[in-house]
Design goal:
Blueprint lengths: L2 H21 L8 E3 H8 L3 H9 L6 E3 L2 E5 H13 L6
Antiparallel strand pairs: 1-3, 2-3
């Protein structure tokens, strides 16, 4: 293995890391999130997100058929859920 081989390996490795980081970048920096981003962030299904919308738990805005959620509302929902006592079934 030569120094040039190691340099090439280093470049490939860094490129792979950059691609992984860009693909898995959290949507935290965004103010408004689309439904798929909220589902990924909260790790919930379409049905659960629909229920949160229907019962008013998570406010949303719909523009041209696209549903948007304010990131601050999601943070508030998580804080409110954290404050609730654990329910045992």
């Amino acid at each position: 293995m030569t120094l040039a081989d190691l340099e090439e390996f280093k470049k490939d490795l860094l490129l792979s890391f950059k691609q992984l980081l860009s693909e898995n970048k959290p949507a935290v920096g965004k103010k408004w999130l689309k439904s798929y981003e909220v589902r990924e962030l909260l790790r919930i299904s379409n049905g659960t997100l629909q229920t949160l919308r229907n019962n008013g738990t998570l406010p949303y805005t719909k523009i041209g058929g696209i549903v948007y959620y304010n990131h601050d509302d999601i943070d508030k929902l998580l804080i409110d859920m954290q404050k609730r006592p654990l329910m045992v079934r």
